[in-house]
From TrEMBL:
<dbReference type="Pfam" id="PF01008">
    <property type="entry name" value="IF-2B"/>
</dbReference>
<feature type="binding site">
    <location>
        <position position="200"/>
    </location>
    <ligand>
        <name>substrate</name>
    </ligand>
</feature>
<comment type="pathway">
    <text>Amino-acid biosynthesis; L-methionine biosynthesis via salvage pathway; L-methionine from S-methyl-5-thio-alpha-D-ribose 1-phosphate: step 1/6.</text>
</comment>
<keyword id="KW-0413">Isomerase</keyword>
<dbReference type="InterPro" id="IPR042529">
    <property type="entry name" value="IF_2B-like_C"/>
</dbReference>
<comment type="function">
    <text>Catalyzes the interconversion of methylthioribose-1-phosphate (MTR-1-P) into methylthioribulose-1-phosphate (MTRu-1-P).</text>
</comment>
<feature type="binding site">
    <location>
        <begin position="51"/>
        <end position="53"/>
    </location>
    <ligand>
        <name>substrate</name>
    </ligand>
</feature>
<feature type="active site" description="Proton donor">
    <location>
        <position position="241"/>
    </location>
</feature>
<dbReference type="GO" id="GO:0046523">
    <property type="term" value="F:S-methyl-5-thioribose-1-phosphate isomerase activity"/>
</dbReference>
<keyword id="KW-0486">Methionine biosynthesis</keyword>
<dbReference type="InterPro" id="IPR005251">
    <property type="entry name" value="IF-M1Pi"/>
</dbReference>
<comment type="similarity">
    <text>Belongs to the EIF-2B alpha/beta/delta subunits family. MtnA subfamily.</text>
</comment>
<feature type="binding site">
    <location>
        <begin position="251"/>
        <end position="252"/>
    </location>
    <ligand>
        <name>substrate</name>
    </ligand>
</feature>
<feature type="binding site">
    <location>
        <position position="88"/>
    </location>
    <ligand>
        <name>substrate</name>
    </ligand>
</feature>
<protein>
    <recommendedName>
        <fullName>Methylthioribose-1-phosphate isomerase</fullName>
        <ecNumber>5.3.1.23</ecNumber>
    </recommendedName>
</protein>
<dbReference type="InterPro" id="IPR000649">
    <property type="entry name" value="IF-2B-related"/>
</dbReference>
<dbReference type="InterPro" id="IPR011559">
    <property type="entry name" value="Initiation_fac_2B_a/b/d"/>
</dbReference>
Amino acid sequence: MKIRDQHYRTIWREQQTVCIIDQTLLPFAFQVVRIETYVEMCHAIRTMQVRGAPLIGAAAAYGLVLGIQAVADDDVLHAVADALIATRPTAVNLRWAIQRMLAQLLVVPQAQRAILAWEVAQSIADEDVTQNHAIGQYGKALIAHAVTVNPAQVVNILTHCNAGWLATVDGGTALAPVYAAFDAGLHIHVWVDETRPRNQGASLTAWELAQHGVPHTVIADNAGGYLMQNGQVDMVIVGADRVTRQGDVCNKIGTYLKALAAADNQIPFYAAVPTPTIDWQMVRGADIEIEMRDADEVAYMQGQGIDGRLQRVRVIPKESQALNPAFDVTPAKWVTGIITELGIFSPADLLTLEAKS
């Protein structure tokens, strides 16, 4: 992704440290943070300085690297891995990345682990970029087909939360088809759900679409159903933090309601994910651990004041309590297809992917 004519990934190595883009400051400030220890990486993941399933997988991999540079024995390796896995429980990519790191590091002598860890983490990051590019190409074909149905019409795509390049190492998942279609000259427009309570749609998706020049409009979360009823949405594309082997999709809270509205209005609903987001060990979405985050994320909102400074304001009565489940699960029966780097699959056909993953 280019920011001010300079290409960025969301995470990268600089000598013996790791750099990230602090997403808690966007869209009002663009700041790069240098991470030097695994404890700092745990903090960055937990506080959502880095977020999005593919990105926190890569971040966890780099965090493990930082944690074993001084001592790389088995005890340290497992302790650092456990600390990183505990930061966020719902997205499967984080555990997948750590397990991949452990599988390759535990079988080599301790003296080789610090160097090898950098190589494995880098490969995880590079593979994510490649996978996202392929997702973009498969998704672009869906958008192109919608154009052939009505060449004179702009294709309106609704998305929820942020599943763009900021949620990955680069390229995006749900937004990868959008960027690919836009770059190919297809006429598209994106409806961007604000995505309460953290407003990742309004703050992050809108920001990166604007950077790329993609036409878009930010809407309140509750406006999506109205737009679908009035023929203003042609397809819904979201990302996911975990997809079960039967095709249930766990994504940012509010996704389930969009899927129900799409089904009621005969609008296709797609989840775009790299295959590491598919949890082949989990059959039912009901078994996914849903992260409960701090209630203050609901009680307070962050924005830019008229003086240009970031401000945090309370939006509910001080006597009121708040509940903050971070994700919900859309059952497979409401999912039209899963867009992966290996193709587009209906939930019923998803198991054909398992042997390739």
